[in-house]
Structures are given as C-alpha cells and as structure tokens.
Amino acid sequence: MNMKKIESIIKYGETMTSLHRILKLRDLEIFHVLKNGHIFAYVVIEDTRNPFTEEDKKLDPLCYMDDEDINEILNVFRISLLNDEAFTKEDSITLRTFFSDFVNSSNLTNFIIKEYIHGRLV
User: Which domain holds residue 22?
Assistant: First the structure.
C-alpha cells in the first residue's frame, strides 16, 4: 500500500476530515475517519494475496470483463467503508477516491471497495 498518506487531512468544501490508522498488521489495516472532530467512518483495507473470487467476478464492472483479463490479476485488496448511516454521495465518492489511492494498482494488483451500513453491504 502507498504509505505516504497514512496520517492525512482531507479538505473538501468547508469540512475538515482527518484520517488515523488505528491498526496495522501485515495484511490488514484499520483506519478511522474523523469529520469535524467526530468519528465519521471506519475503513478496513485487507490485502487478500489472492486473485478475484468467483463471487467478485459477478460484481459490476468485473462482470463485463473478459475472464482472461480478470484472471491476470493475482492480488486483490478489499477496502470496506463502514458507517452507522448511509454515506452521502459526496462522502462516498471522496472516501472511495482517497482510499483507492492507497493501493498500488498494476496489471497484477487491483482492489474492490464495498460500503457497509450497520454491518450490511450497501
């Protein structure tokens, strides 16, 4: 993962958002995101060290790709955005954009981002 952004501040609009890594293991990192001083979301980044699963291949946009192209990807990172309430569209895009930069994507590595509200996939 790109470690240059571990303790960062995101500015958009009039909102100040800060990011703090609260756990770092070899294949797992957990962050909490503060928005205006309050915990806004938790983010879990998992390095699966595996290719896409058959379930992953059914997701949009992977379901439209050729199996040959998908099978070339040998390592998938899973990024989970967790919150008590649904994210606004702006917050979702901001978090997805910011955390997608954490993964050094290449022709062999890619990532999947999913949002969870109260533990349920959105």
Answer: 1-48
